[in-house]
Amino acid sequence: MWSSGAGTAIEVLRCHKPLVVVVNDELMDNHQTELADALNREGYLLSCCPEQEDMVQTLHKLPSTRFRPFPGPDWTAFPLFLDHVLFSTPPPSTRLPHSE
Fold first, then answer.
1. Which of 57, 59, 75, 96 is the most exposed place for a label (fewest CB within 10 A)?
2. How far, in Å, are 14, 18, 40, 83 from residue 46 at the CA level?
3. 43 and 61 in contact (C-beta within 8 Å)?
4. Cβ-contact 16, 70 below 8 angstroms
């Protein structure tokens, strides 16, 4: 279980380890909640708030949860984007790997 810093979450997911993220719900512009909720919806991790009841419920789900493997980096995406912006090549695909 980790606080939901984006870098830490991505590192753990790339190691294909089960992850429960506890979001800091006191942040003003809460990007942690947005990222954790999105990764939770996609099946990569579980997320919860720091309230004890929410954490306990989430931890009870852990043994029966089947996580999706987190995809590795796409080393071609950024160069294709630059080609598109700088040289007016066709835009790179925006399709995510899991949306087949």
1. 75
2. 15, 8, 5, 37
3. no
4. yes
